[in-house]
Amino acid sequence: MRRFYFIFKHEVLAFVRFPLMIILLLLCPIVVIGFIPQTLGHSIKFNCAIVDMDHSSASMEIGQKILSSEHCLPPVWCSSVEEAMHLMEYNSVLMIVSIPEGYERGIELGNPEKITLLADGSRVIEADIAVPKMMSLLSGNDASGGIINLHRLFNSEEHSEQYYLVSLISMSLLIIAMFLIGLNIAGEKKHNTLSQIIVTGVDMRLYLGTKVLFYSLVVILELFLCLAVGYIVYDMTIASGIGQLVMVTYILTFPLLFLGVFIASVARNDIQAIYLMIFLMIFLVMLSSIIAPLANMSGISYYFCRMNPVNWLTESLRVVITYGFPLRTIFPELVAGILLSVIFFFSSIRLLKRIN
Amino acid sequence: MHRILTISSLTKRFGSLLAVRDFSLTLDKGDVVGVFGANGAGKTTLIRMIIGLTKPTSGEFTIATGCRIGYMSQSFSLVGTLTVMENFEFYGALYNLPRQEFIDQRDRFITHFKMEEYLNVRTDRLPAGRKQLLAFSISRLHSPTLLLLDEPTSGLDLLNRKRLWEAVREAAEEGIAIMVSTHYLDEAYYCDKIAMMERGAIKAYGDPIDLANKAGGNLINLFLEEK
Amino acid sequence: MRGIWTVARKELSHILRDKVSGLILFVLPALFFISIGFAISIDIERIDLAIANTAGPKANEVINHLCNIDKVSKVVMLNSPSEMEESFARDGIVAAIVISEGEGGYNAPFQFDLFINCSFATNILAIRNPISSAIKNSLIGPGNNSPFTVRYLYNSDLNRKMATIPGIIMIILIVVSTIIFSISINKEKVHGTSRLLSLTPLGPLRIVIGKLLPYFLISLIHISYLIFLGQSIFGLGINGSFLLYFLFCSLFSLNSMMLGLLVGSYCKTYEAALIICWFFIFTPNLFLSGFVMPVSSMPEAMQKVAHLHNGYHFIEGYRSIAYKGTGLAENIPHILFLTIQSLIVFIIALLGFSRRYSKS
User: What is the mean pLDDT of residues B122-142?
Assistant: First the structure.
């Protein structure tokens, strides 16, 4: 117990006396939670060009519709498609609405000429969002037919930033968990403190376990900071209880902490540890549901994602924060998290003992 | 219990590099053995094998039953962000010393090495001489019977080197068996025996004065002589 | 020149002799590019669907059509609509459809309620459209003849990798050119070798250029093989001038290195350099460049902030040159921004670097 206390105390003192750690702890929620979600809007306002070859009241009506739409910026009127294409090459317009000659006459005859919509496919994400909006604006109904009542769950008002918040919290916890402990152990190896500690005969399980325990508390503190920023800036609330949230975060952060320890153990020096952590973190973030949902992944990426502890953390946080479902729905993730923690724990101990 | 350490044909190979070659040596209670050699001779590797940080490729070494090992590394291995007092407490706890024994040992070293004014100073802000004495104190905190010091005087001035060697001799007088690695030949005369290493193997072993006499009156001739 | 070359050679040998670091620098970006390129897609590749049928056996035909949708990989049959919510979490479904009795008689025998998990605010139509088509195909009834044709220019096959590949290249170049380079600059100070270098007649400018050259070379190698990988694995060629494309990517790489130099010159430790690069360069570029979300979908104030980031200009310029095949004229704003930013940052960084070297 006494050893545990002093190891824990050593970690606390080392932490608070290294101002960079405090800065990292504070910076994470402010930048990642406070600032980044501001960018994740989904209500696109697109710009388009209108090429009116008909010059009729029907074509003017189309222009009026586009002008008065909340989704469109004031359109640019062009005399030809070539002129409009030139604008598209300069990224000035996302779409070109080309109204052919004889459009109004066609409507009167009951056989309207087809309007052509040219979209900038190189801006795929925007085009995907904007084109259906334009089509529905011009046709006046749902382009796929009024056969289905559509319900948008968990995002009825299209506030995307609210729903990426959970992803960003997960990313913040990953950064804190891996970086802090990884740099700490890499530093101990570099200054040879670890050799001295091994010589004292202290059980490495106790030493490493206490260290990880301390940093797990730091991660929980970080969680609360992120929640606080989320609440203040975006009115973010938790669907389930705080207790459940803390428990889930606690269990699923351990694999990430032990991963940081594992990397620091494997690396021969602190520079290698930093390089490994950077790349691994990017892999883990990208191959999880932080940036894109699982449904977007194909083949081996999908299976990797299912085995990614960062994905477990993200999905579990979603269950607790967004959905409010019972914990039994994430039981497999919790068990997998515990198993992975144990594997990384014992592997790290073996590696640290063999620090030649 | 007189014989503390017996090393027998210890060898360590790193790939194609033979860092330690067929090294044999004994160490008795109260002995101070100096291991001398140029950089890359294998001194640090030898010590790391004895304390268990590296596994030997072949050979063996035996440490007396119940022996406690103390270690001081080249880089002192102190926790930089902790103060002198906190370092004592931290390592005292890791050694699992009973409270009173720890207090007695700690106070003894603080007084002996005059560390009173540095107790609340972070070790990363201490001058090198002070760090060295602190690291030495910590290596002795748990009253070891075998002390392994890896280039403890590296980078220090003459006065601090002298201070440390006086501390080493005092420890030897208390019955601690000490192995010190160094490349300062003038320190040989602090030792009861010296082992001169070259390319991982022992080039010469024995009393420093005898060896100096055999080498024409100066140990440096022995050091510079190519095997 | 000799001094510059000496410093450059020392840096290169350090990179190449540390085998693990070399492996990380050369191999990992390629692995990253391939794996993430496959993984990140705005296209929906799989729809895990739950179906709750309260309309009875007459809906079986519809259910069969739903199960046979190409992208539907898993179908969970629910006993009742009340099980739907839990199924979202337990079974990982993205959409649930409730089929109930319609009130329109022959023409409208069913009521379909489609519930889509919008917690990602993802491409809803990619989920809705195939389901709607499947239902329409299974029923006898009027369809909806849209009077419009839609063509996607520069991407007629709607290859969605176009959206992600520039972002991945941007990430790789930022990691190597900014983060790793800033640590390399900082390392000299931390290890004390800066003291030795400051005694040489080289001067800070030549030292910086010497250090920069190997990393610039590495980034050029990355750019080259990423083009090759993009072409061979994802089928994305360069429609515009290859030379302009290569020079543009090199300019971005150089720009990123200037930012790395700035951070490395002013930070005292690796950890500080790493944290600043991560939070102030990498993360903002990830989200503000248009890679994750289009810049035009951001609030106006954020759009202006996005325009100040080199990642935004890189992605815009990349798409313009590589996909639209535009020339120099159309990309002047992006090229100018990257160039001017590089110069300003270089001057500030060099001042910091000189000051640190003379003080060390």
Answer: 90
DSSP assignment of C107-118:
S--EEEEEEEE-
Residue C169: name the closest of C214, C216, C219 by CA: C219
CB of A119 closer than 8 Å to CB of A46: no
Q: Are A97 and A81 spatial neighbours (Cβ–Cβ below 8 Å)?
A: no
Q: Is A6 on the interface with C (CB under 8 A)?
A: no
The answer, for C88 touching chain A at a CB cutoff of 8 Å, is yes
Give yes or no for a contact between B188 and B208, defined as CB atoms under 8 angstroms apart. Answer: yes
Output the pLDDT for position C141: 46
The DSSP line for A33-51 is IIIGGGG------B-EEEE
Per-chain mean pLDDT for chain B: 88
Q: Do A200 and B53 touch (CB under 8 A)?
A: no
Question: Which residues does residue B72 pair with via DSSP β-bridges, in sequence order?
Answer: B149
Q: Which chains have 3 or more CB–CB distances shorter than 8 Å to chain A? A: B, C
Q: Does A252 contact chain C (CB < 8 Å)?
A: no
Measured distance CA(B45)–CA(B41) in Å, rounded: 9
The structure tokens listed for B17 are 């590099």
Does C contact B via 3+ CB–CB distances below 8 Å?
Answer: no
Q: Which residue among B53, B69, B94 sits closest to A202, beta carbon to beta carbon?
A: B94
The model's pTM is: 0.73
Residues C176 and C259: beta-carbon distance below 8 Å? no
The ipTM, to two decimals, is 0.76
Contact between B150 and B73 (Cβ < 8 Å):
yes
Q: Which residues of C touch A41 (CB under 8 A)?
A: 293, 297-299, 302
User: How many DSSP H helices and E strands does chain C contain?
Assistant: 15, 5
CA dist B36 to B39, B147, B163, C238, Å? 10, 16, 19, 65
Give the ranges where chain B is alpha helix by DSSP (H): 43-51, 84-94, 99-112, 128-140, 158-173, 208-214, 219-224
The tokens of A23 are what? 């800065």
- Burial label for C144, CB within 10 Å (0-12, 13-18, 19+), is middle
**261-320 in chain A: CB under 8 A from chain C:** 267-268, 270-272, 274-276, 278-279, 282-283, 286-287, 289, 291-302, 304-305, 318-319
Q: How many helices (H) and strands (E) does chain B have?
A: 7, 9
Would you state the pLDDT for residue A49? 92
pLDDT tens-digit series, residues A76-114: 999 998 899 888 877 788 888 888 888 888 878 877 777
Interchain pair A196, B71: CB under 8 A = yes
Q: Do C128 and A148 touch (CB under 8 A)?
A: yes
Beta bridge partners of C77: C51
Main-chain phi, psi angles of B75, to 5 degrees: -95, 15
Residue pairs spanning A and C at CB distance below 8 A: 308
Contacts of B48 in chain A (CB under 8 A): 195, 356
Q: Does domain C47-153 sit in CATH 3.40.1710.10? A: yes
Beta bridge partners of C74: C48
Is C24's CB within 8 Å of A279's CB? yes
For chain C, domain boundaries: 47-153, 161-359
Contact flag A195-B122 (C-beta cutoff 8 Å): no
Whole-number Å distance between alpha carbons of C232 and C125: 30
List, as own/partner pairs, every contact residues C18-27 make where C-beta atoms lie below 8 angstroms and the sequence separation is at least 24, other chains included: C18/A271, C18/A272, C20/A267, C20/A268, C20/A272, C21/A271, C21/A272, C21/A275, C24/A272, C24/A275, C24/A276, C24/A279, C25/A275, C25/C176, C25/C180, C25/C218, C26/C218, C26/C221
| Residue of A71, A99, A128, A234 to mutate when probing chain C, most C C-beta within 10 A | A128
Structure token pair of residue C186: 């900082």
CB contact under 8 A, A7 and B94: yes
Nearest-CB residue to A275 (from C21, C124, C126): C21
